[in-house]
Amino acid sequence: MIRVLGIKIIDRIKEIGLTQEVLSKYSSIITTRLGFHELTNEVCSREAYLILHLSDNETEIKKMINELKNIGGINIQEMVFDGKPFVNFRVEEGALRILGILAEKKNPEAIKTLQKTLTSYGCVIRTRLGVNEEFYGNPAGLIILELMGDEIQMDLLERDLHHIPGVHLRKMAF
């Protein structure tokens, strides 16, 4: 099983210290961490997001999630790749959409199709993170996308990815 945790920090100046304490305590189960917030010459957003790729230690994951929930001021969501079918859900317009893609590497043509699909929807992919993974003992690639922009294009991207053999999807929305 592969688990990705998404955390929205509502006020990073207020909550990030406590959040960081918990993440440091459980650093042994965090295999990859991506953090981001809006930053321009005019704006430094107080809202922040963390994406955590976690090891397969269910007991420690549950403890970490419970401690994070006790902080307050954060929203936690997760994506679990466990072989079950993708359950799509509607996303509120303007919500931050995080798409998780687990690509089995046993079919090189499907991997090429996946890469072409991601390239063709590049205008709605703001951030992309790739991690090598194993899925039921076989090599796989885990891709985390932060999507932004045209809602219709994001929906079409999900639809097109869903039809590629050996590609498993999960989604979070904040």
List keywords for this structure.
4-stranded antiparallel beta sheet; Alpha-Beta Plaits; single chain; alpha+beta; globular; 174 residues; 4 helices
Descriptive account of the structure:
The protein folds into 2 domains: 2-80, ACT-like. Chain A, domain 2 (Alpha-Beta Plaits), CATH 3.30.70.1150; 83-173, ACT-like. Chain A, domain 2 (Alpha-Beta Plaits), CATH 3.30.70.1150. The two termini are 23 Å apart. It has 4 helices and 8 strands; from the N terminus they run βαββαββαββαβ. By secondary structure, the chain is of the alpha+beta class. The radius of gyration is 16 Å and the shape is globular.
Overall mean pLDDT: 93
The name CATH uses for the topology of the largest domain is Alpha-Beta Plaits
Strand-residue proportion: 35-45%
Q: Gap between N and C termini, in Å?
A: 23 Å
Q: In terms of per-residue confidence, which ranges show pLDDT below 50 for 5 or more consecutive residues? A: none
CATH architecture of the largest domain: 2-Layer Sandwich
Portion of residues in helices? 25-40%
**What general form does the structure show?**
globular
Major beta sheet, strand line-up: 2-3-1-4
Rg, Å, rounded: 16 Å
Pattern of helices and strands = EHEEHEEHEEHE
CATH class of the largest domain, please? Answer: Alpha Beta
How is the biggest beta sheet arranged? 4 strands, antiparallel
Counting H and I runs of at least 4 residues, what is the number of helices?
4
Q: How many domains is the backbone divided into? A: 2
**Strand count:** 8
